[in-house]
TrEMBL record:
Signal peptide residue numbers: none
Organism: Marinobacterium lutimaris
Protein name: SpoIIAA-like
InterPro entries: SpoIIAA-like, SpoIIAA-like_sf, STAS_dom_sf
Superkingdom assignment: Bacteria
Pfam families for this protein: SpoIIAA-like
Amino acid sequence: MSIQLHEENGGRLIVVQVSGTLVKADYEQFVPEFERLVREHGKLRLLFDMSGFHGWELSAAWEDLKFGVKHLSDIERLAMIGEKKWQQGMAVFCKPFTKAQIRYFDHTEVAEARRWIEQEDRTD
């Protein structure tokens, strides 16, 4: 699977690692697991690592859009880690569609991303 996730801090922090090119089957496994975590913990904080991510097949892009529309309100904070300009653009693109705090971090700033995502206050 090109999407891997694991829980930290009692499940309120979800680390998501995407790599390669995502296909529809990746979402068929990822989405139910994400939805289970939302039912268990409520709003989540995501550390979304896109290092080594190349994009989506067309069917996976559609699944990603549906996921975003349905679940952006389930995310309290989203730290996006990447290594390419288009990945940084994804963080900017997401902001109007959610009340979640979203920040982009370069792949060299993982420690800073972790500090920000784990902060208790609501300031950047």
